Amino acid sequence: MPVSPQRAFGARVRELRLAAGMTQDDLSERCGLFRTYVSRIETGQANPTLTMIHALAVSLGVPVPALFGVPAVPRKAPLRTARLSRGRVG
Questions:
Q1: Domain membership flag for residue 24
Q2: Residues 71, 16: Cα–Cα separation, whole Å
């Protein structure tokens, strides 16, 4: 039976919290969330908003993609392109 996205997200938050040596009380205090809400997120019973996802990531000290189990990809320098002529003759 496939795991729901909410449960997978909650399990990842719990995994990161435990790896950081934090309790649910510690995490809820750092995020500014009620501990019961953190508990509901970890068990997959609550679907956090984007604001809460960012608060969790900051509190855990990880980038947002890490909450979803996506490895961080280093940013590459933007491509430089030559300026294109707009048909003007100088």
A1: yes
A2: 13
Residue type, 25: D
Residue 34: closest CA among 48, 44, 21, 20: 48
51 within domain boundaries: yes
Identify whether 44 is part of a domain. yes
- Band of residue 1 on the pLDDT scale cut at 50, 70, 90: confident
Cα atoms in the 13 Å half-sphere on the side-chain side of 40: 10
Q: Which range of residues forms the domain containing residue 31? A: 5-66
Whether the per-residue pLDDT at 42 is higher than 60: the answer is yes
pLDDT above 90: percentage of residues in the chain: 46
Assigned domain for 49 exists? yes
How far is Cα 60 from Cα 7, in angstroms, rounded to an integer?
A: 18
**pLDDT tens digits, residue range 58-81?**
999 999 888 888 766 666 666 565
